[in-house]
Design goal:
The chain is mainly alpha-helical and 142 residues long. The protein is globular, with a radius of gyration of 18 Å.
Protein backbone atom coordinates (compact mmCIF):
# COMPACT_ATOMS: atom_id res chain seq x y z
CA UNK A 1 0.00 0.00 0.00
CA UNK A 2 1.45 3.34 -0.99
CA UNK A 3 1.57 6.55 1.02
CA UNK A 4 -1.22 8.18 -1.00
CA UNK A 5 -3.63 5.34 -0.15
CA UNK A 6 -2.76 5.57 3.55
CA UNK A 7 -3.21 9.34 3.52
CA UNK A 8 -6.60 9.04 1.83
CA UNK A 9 -7.75 6.56 4.46
CA UNK A 10 -6.64 8.83 7.30
CA UNK A 11 -8.48 11.73 5.65
CA UNK A 12 -11.60 9.52 5.49
CA UNK A 13 -11.23 8.77 9.21
CA UNK A 14 -11.03 12.50 9.90
CA UNK A 15 -14.07 13.16 7.72
CA UNK A 16 -16.14 10.57 9.61
CA UNK A 17 -15.04 12.05 12.93
CA UNK A 18 -16.06 15.54 11.82
CA UNK A 19 -19.45 14.29 10.63
CA UNK A 20 -20.07 12.71 14.04
CA UNK A 21 -19.13 15.99 15.73
CA UNK A 22 -21.46 17.94 13.43
CA UNK A 23 -24.45 15.71 14.22
CA UNK A 24 -23.57 15.63 17.90
CA UNK A 25 -23.44 19.41 18.30
CA UNK A 26 -26.48 19.87 16.05
CA UNK A 27 -28.51 17.46 18.20
CA UNK A 28 -27.42 19.23 21.37
CA UNK A 29 -28.37 22.60 19.93
CA UNK A 30 -31.78 21.48 18.69
CA UNK A 31 -32.76 19.62 21.84
CA UNK A 32 -31.28 21.96 24.49
CA UNK A 33 -31.43 25.28 22.65
CA UNK A 34 -28.38 26.71 24.50
CA UNK A 35 -27.65 30.44 24.55
CA UNK A 36 -24.39 29.92 22.67
CA UNK A 37 -22.78 27.05 20.78
CA UNK A 38 -20.11 24.90 22.42
CA UNK A 39 -16.63 26.33 22.04
CA UNK A 40 -14.66 23.07 22.14
CA UNK A 41 -15.24 19.64 20.65
CA UNK A 42 -14.37 17.61 23.77
CA UNK A 43 -18.01 16.82 24.52
CA UNK A 44 -18.93 15.52 21.07
CA UNK A 45 -19.34 11.90 22.13
CA UNK A 46 -21.43 12.82 25.19
CA UNK A 47 -23.63 15.12 23.09
CA UNK A 48 -24.55 12.15 20.90
CA UNK A 49 -27.14 11.19 23.52
CA UNK A 50 -29.21 14.16 22.42
CA UNK A 51 -29.93 12.33 19.16
CA UNK A 52 -32.58 10.48 21.19
CA UNK A 53 -34.57 13.72 21.06
CA UNK A 54 -35.15 13.15 17.33
CA UNK A 55 -37.12 9.92 17.71
CA UNK A 56 -40.01 8.48 19.64
CA UNK A 57 -39.53 6.03 22.48
CA UNK A 58 -40.39 3.09 20.24
CA UNK A 59 -37.07 3.61 18.42
CA UNK A 60 -34.83 4.12 21.46
CA UNK A 61 -33.27 0.65 21.24
CA UNK A 62 -32.27 1.14 17.61
CA UNK A 63 -30.99 4.67 18.16
CA UNK A 64 -29.03 3.79 21.29
CA UNK A 65 -27.27 1.15 19.20
CA UNK A 66 -26.36 3.73 16.55
CA UNK A 67 -25.15 6.12 19.26
CA UNK A 68 -22.96 3.44 20.86
CA UNK A 69 -21.42 2.50 17.51
CA UNK A 70 -20.85 6.19 16.72
CA UNK A 71 -19.08 6.67 20.06
CA UNK A 72 -16.87 3.69 19.28
CA UNK A 73 -15.99 5.17 15.88
CA UNK A 74 -15.34 8.55 17.48
CA UNK A 75 -12.90 7.05 20.00
CA UNK A 76 -11.15 4.80 17.49
CA UNK A 77 -10.82 7.64 15.00
CA UNK A 78 -9.09 9.71 17.66
CA UNK A 79 -6.72 6.85 18.41
CA UNK A 80 -5.89 6.48 14.72
CA UNK A 81 -5.45 10.19 14.06
CA UNK A 82 -3.25 10.71 17.13
CA UNK A 83 -1.18 7.56 16.60
CA UNK A 84 -2.38 5.87 19.82
CA UNK A 85 -3.39 2.72 18.02
CA UNK A 86 -1.54 -0.06 16.28
CA UNK A 87 -4.24 0.44 13.66
CA UNK A 88 -2.61 3.54 12.17
CA UNK A 89 -4.77 3.28 9.10
CA UNK A 90 -8.19 1.66 9.04
CA UNK A 91 -8.84 -0.93 6.36
CA UNK A 92 -11.29 -0.15 3.57
CA UNK A 93 -13.74 -2.69 5.07
CA UNK A 94 -13.66 -0.92 8.45
CA UNK A 95 -14.09 2.47 6.78
CA UNK A 96 -17.10 1.17 4.83
CA UNK A 97 -18.65 -0.09 8.08
CA UNK A 98 -17.97 3.23 9.80
CA UNK A 99 -19.44 5.12 6.83
CA UNK A 100 -22.62 3.04 7.14
CA UNK A 101 -23.00 3.84 10.85
CA UNK A 102 -22.34 7.57 10.42
CA UNK A 103 -24.83 7.68 7.53
CA UNK A 104 -27.45 6.07 9.79
CA UNK A 105 -26.72 8.70 12.43
CA UNK A 106 -27.14 11.50 9.88
CA UNK A 107 -30.34 9.91 8.58
CA UNK A 108 -31.91 10.29 12.04
CA UNK A 109 -31.55 14.07 11.77
CA UNK A 110 -32.77 14.03 8.16
CA UNK A 111 -35.88 12.01 9.11
CA UNK A 112 -36.64 14.40 11.95
CA UNK A 113 -36.20 17.42 9.64
CA UNK A 114 -38.51 15.90 7.01
CA UNK A 115 -41.24 15.61 9.67
CA UNK A 116 -40.93 19.31 10.36
CA UNK A 117 -38.83 18.97 13.49
CA UNK A 118 -41.64 17.61 15.62
CA UNK A 119 -40.81 16.29 19.05
CA UNK A 120 -37.58 18.11 19.86
CA UNK A 121 -37.67 19.99 23.12
CA UNK A 122 -40.30 17.76 24.68
CA UNK A 123 -39.41 15.84 27.77
CA UNK A 124 -37.91 12.43 27.19
CA UNK A 125 -38.92 9.59 29.48
CA UNK A 126 -36.39 6.82 29.76
CA UNK A 127 -37.89 3.67 31.25
CA UNK A 128 -36.38 2.29 34.44
CA UNK A 129 -34.11 -0.74 34.00
CA UNK A 130 -35.75 -4.10 34.59
CA UNK A 131 -36.20 -4.86 38.25
CA UNK A 132 -36.18 -1.25 39.41
CA UNK A 133 -39.30 0.40 40.71
CA UNK A 134 -40.36 3.76 39.34
CA UNK A 135 -41.60 6.23 41.92
CA UNK A 136 -43.96 9.14 41.42
CA UNK A 137 -41.41 11.51 42.97
CA UNK A 138 -37.89 11.76 41.56
CA UNK A 139 -36.46 12.30 45.05
CA UNK A 140 -37.69 11.08 48.43
CA UNK A 141 -39.70 13.67 50.33
CA UNK A 142 -37.95 14.96 53.26
Amino acid sequence: MDLTELSLRRIKVLELRLRIERISFRAHGLVCKPDRPPTIANDADSYLSFVLGFVGQERYGEVIGVIRLSRHIYKKSSDILHGRSSLLSASSVVLDEWEFVVSRLERLLDEWSEKGGEGVGVSVTIPAPAGEVETAEPYPAG
